[in-house]
């Protein structure tokens, strides 16, 4: 039994329980009697907004991987590295741990997060029943990853710090780092925009609210 079935909702600001004026679930809005915030049975436009942010993060992911992450200036010349060429460099020089950390944080995790969000969006949009527990855990995983997403950003700083030990070198972040930061931030917002309560809504209702 869901709060929505009783015409009840929860204020997003102060968590006051709010009664909706009607039991129809279309575009119902109520005002919180305690703090005056707008209360909706589900996050308005959750599916559309999450899709938009997921697509944006896919677009940003391409230049993040293709453009140089950093430029290293030494007396011997300038070397530019993408994420993948950095990973290959560390693997070839025997730094398997650093190579693996960069690969997992920068290449594997963003792709995993994007794929999970696409799966959750499709499952909710198509009104798939079942696998509730599994989908809930996948959603929690994206939240957990969100909390650790900044690790990806630190990877660049760590790489810069590591190379600084060499001395006589100058390192500048490349344009790839900017797009990479965008991927991290945009996927974080995408996970926040998704409304996990949609997972348990029957298919008919989901379609009625999101035609
Ligand atoms: Zn309130």
Task: Please provide a brief summary of the model.
This protein is mainly α. The chain contains 7 helices and 7 strands, in the order E-E-E-E-H-E-E-H-H-H-H-E-H-H. Zinc ion (ZN) binds next to loops.
Q: Please give the domain count.
A: 2
Low-confidence stretches: 206-211
By oligomeric state, this entry counts as single chain
Report the bound ligands by name, code or SMILES: zinc ion
Strand order of the biggest β-sheet:
6-5-7
- Give the strand tally: 7
**Secondary-structure arrangement, i.e. CATH architecture of the largest domain:** Up-down Bundle
Q: Determine the number of helices (DSSP H or I, runs of at least 4 residues).
A: 7
Strand content: 5-15%
Question: Would you state the CATH class of the largest domain?
Answer: Mainly Alpha
CATH fold type of the largest domain = Butyryl-CoA Dehydrogenase, subunit A, domain 3
Describe the structure.
The protein folds into two domains: 41 residues, no CATH class; 165 residues, Butyryl-CoA Dehydrogenase, subunit A, domain 3. With 211 residues, the protein is mainly α. A hairpin with a 6-residue loop joins strand 3 and strand 4. The strands form three sheets. A three-stranded antiparallel β-sheet has the order 6-5-7. A two-stranded antiparallel sheet has the order 1-2. The protein has seven helices and seven strands; from the N terminus they run E-E-E-E-H-E-E-H-H-H-H-E-H-H. Helix 3 packs antiparallel against helix 5. Bound molecules: zinc ion.
């Amino acid at each position: 039994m869901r709060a929505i079935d009783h015409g009840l909702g929860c204020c997003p600001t102060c968590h006051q329980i709010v009664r909706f004026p009607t039991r129809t679930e279309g575009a119902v809005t109520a005002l919180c009697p305690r703090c005056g915030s707008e209360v909706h049975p589900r996050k308005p436009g959750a599916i559309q907004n999450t899709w938009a942010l997921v697509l944006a993060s896919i677009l940003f992911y391409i230049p993040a991987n293709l453009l140089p992450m950093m430029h290293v200036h030494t007396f011997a010349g300038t070397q530019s590295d993408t994420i993948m060429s950095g990973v290959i460099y560390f693997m070839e020089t025997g730094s398997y741990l650093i190579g693996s950390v960069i690969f997992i944080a920068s290449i594997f995790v963003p792709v995993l997060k994007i794929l999970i969000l696409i799966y959750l969006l499709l499952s909710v949009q198509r009104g798939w029943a079942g696998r509730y527990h599994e989908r809930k855990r996948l959603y929690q995983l994206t939240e957990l990853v969100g909390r650790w997403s900044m690790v990806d950003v630190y990877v660049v700083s760590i790489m810069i710090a590591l190379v600084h030990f060499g001395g006589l070198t100058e390192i500048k972040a490349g344009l790839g780092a900017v797009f990479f930061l965008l991927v991290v931030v945009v996927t974080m917002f995408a996970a926040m925009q998704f409304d996990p309560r949609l997972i348990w809504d029957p298919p008919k209702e989901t379609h009625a609210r999101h035609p």
